[in-house]
Amino acid sequence: MLSTRTVPPTFTYRPNFITAEEEERLLAKVASAPQPKWTTLKNRRLQNWGATPIAAKNNVALPEKLPDWLAPLADRIAAEVDSAFVFDGTKYGIMPHLDGPAYRPTVATVSLGEYCILEFYKRRNLDEVMVTGEHDDADSQTIRPTPDFRFLIQPRSLVMLQDEMYEGYLHGIGETWEDRQNSRVSLTFRVAAKVSKLNLFGKKR
Ligand SMILES: O=C(O)CCC(=O)C(=O)O
Ligand SMILES: [Fe+2]
């Protein structure tokens, strides 16, 4: 961390939020998901569970339950969490971005397997990229500015970005050049801002 004084209070870091046994169970569940559940991005792949805001539908999400292996963890974070993304592999980092308005301004991330360096950049103007959970590393050739602050995020920890940290700062993950023992898997939990009253079959709930 470069400076504690400038970090807004809406950043939360809880080391050892889950136990090593829970971490192992979650990693096994992620690994056993059926192949079509994975979407491959440039530098990582993702699984989406629960509500997914659909950009083409003005970010309205279809209601969908979290699976049994994610729901208890989501409940421990907040009762209303309805959306989870699983990311695998961040060796090449993630460009600074905002998670965007499709979700309420809180994101909670549980890290598994490996550490990462989470970097924050104060948002300078309102035109800066707005991207949602599926954004990827499209412009990874861009030179990164120096972050305003950065944190070492350990596996099994919980990170929460809320309000000012969610909306007033871009976040990204630094590239890691050294060979690593493990790949990093992250579980990001959010609450969709707008959920449709229709279920998956187009019928009213
Ligand atoms: O993997 C992480 O810790 C965060 C990923 C992220 O920022 C995102 O997918 O929006
Ligand atoms: Fe993000």
Automatic annotation (TrEMBL):
InterPro entries: AlkB-like_sf (IPR037151), ALKBH6 (IPR032862), Oxoglu/Fe-dep_dioxygenase_dom (IPR005123). Residues 68-193 form the Fe2OG dioxygenase domain. Belongs to the iron/ascorbate-dependent oxidoreductase family. GO terms for cellular component: nucleus. GO terms for molecular function: dioxygenase activity; metal ion binding. Its main location: nucleus. Transmembrane segments: none annotated. Keywords: Dioxygenase, Iron, Metal-binding, Nucleus, Oxidoreductase. It is found in: Nucleus. Coiled coil: none annotated. This is Fe2OG dioxygenase domain-containing protein. SUPFAM superfamilies: Clavaminate synthase-like (SSF51197).
